[in-house]
Amino acid sequence: MTVSFKRLNPQATLPTYAHPGDAGMDLCACEQTLILPGERKLVHTGLAMALPPGTEGQVRPRSGLALKHGVTVLNAPGTIDEGYRGELCVILINHGDQPFAIEPGMRIAQLIIAPVARAAIELCDALPESDRGTGGFGSTGC
Fold it and tell me: How confident is the model at residue 134 (pLDDT cuts 50, 70, 90)?
């Protein structure tokens, strides 16, 4: 599978897989900014992409940023639809107690390319029974 990327900003860094077999490729910031504790920011990558038909892009947090700094992707996973051609941006939030500085080229999130199943929608009067039924929100214990 090939994913085509276009640089919208000359400082943009192309995503890369850090290790063979990695599921996610690293997305990098193309700007300098500061995220204060409790603050959220839209961080630009300076990239646009064309996904293959039948796929989506999932933007997920980097575990090291979350563990060491409390910085994570706010709407994880963020969804990029196959037809979107605008700039890839990442909504980061700082749950830590210190300001977090973003520098151009810093790895801020992961991008995973995944297949998408499209469902046919039907309206019905009754749903088939199941063992679980309507149990949810902690119905199996904490």
Answer: confident
